[in-house]
Design goal:
- It is a single chain.
- With about 190 residues, the protein is α/β, with parallel strands linked by helices.
- The chain has 8 helices and 5 strands, in the order βαβααβαβααβαα.
- The chain has helices spanning about 35-45, 55-65, 70-90, 105-110, 125-135, 145-150, 170-180, 185-190; strands at about 20-25, 45-50, 95-100, 120-125, 165.
- It has a 5-stranded parallel beta sheet, with helices on both faces.
- The protein starts with about 20 loop residues before the first strand and ends with a helix.
- Residues about 1-15 have low confidence and may be disordered.
């Protein structure tokens, strides 16, 4: 399903061709990507999108059945996400995307979208994340897939210039740290 999700709006009319910011909040399922990305959107006006909403139904069915996705399932989805960000950049709209982006090669595909992409990596212990996953309802990604996601995860290298935050912090503190760490406050001020 291709989603045009949005909770953020700057209130200003976007000017195509102007500099935009594109943030991907990444990490394994249950790390708080959506919560933090929505919080960044609310604080800054960046247009929010949930990457899971871009998965085709065939991918969703696999995950719902507890089957880990393979790269062949992910490439078209990642290209769609990059294209979505590039389209918003062409419209002069800044975005924030909640997306696992577990491997460097996946992040590289996302970087092929808009002129620049910034990443916030929500990182933490498997125990904290597993406990959070056990409490959430209504999500098709079962907690049983956490181990496969952790096995797939390639933490960002130093050359990727990614802001890494500890998931043990409160969602509010994570949002503040992301907004401050990426200097997104100036978006609100502009």
């Amino acid at each position: 399903m291709t989603g045009e999700a949005g909770t953020g709006s700057s209130g200003d009319v976007p000017v195509p061709g102007t500099a935009t910011r594109h943030v991907v909040v990444m990490g394994v399922s249950g790390s708080g990507k959506t919560t933090v990305a929505v919080g960044i959107s609310a604080a800054t006006g960046l247009l929010f999108a949930e990457a899971d909403e871009f998965h085709p139904e065939s991918n969703v069915a696999l995950m719902r059945d507890g089957v880990p996705l393979e790269d062949a399932h992910r490439w078209p989805w990642l290209r769609e996400l990059a294209s979505w960000m590039a389209g918003r950049a062409a419209e002069g709209v800044s975005t924030v995307l909640a997306c696992s982006a577990l491997k460097r090669s996946y992040r590289d595909v996302l970087r092929q979208g808009p002129p620049s992409v910034e990443f916030v990596f929500l990182h933490g212990s498997a125990e904290v994340i597993r406990e959070r996953m056990s409490r959430r309802t209504g999500h098709y990604m079962p907690a049983s897939l956490l181990d496969s996601q952790l096995a797939t995860l390639e933490p960002p290298g130093a050359d990727e210039h990614v802001l890494t935050l500890d998931v043990a912090a409160t969602p509010e503190d994570l949002v503040t740290a992301a907004v401050d760490g990426l200097d997104l406050n100036r978006i609100v001020a502009d």
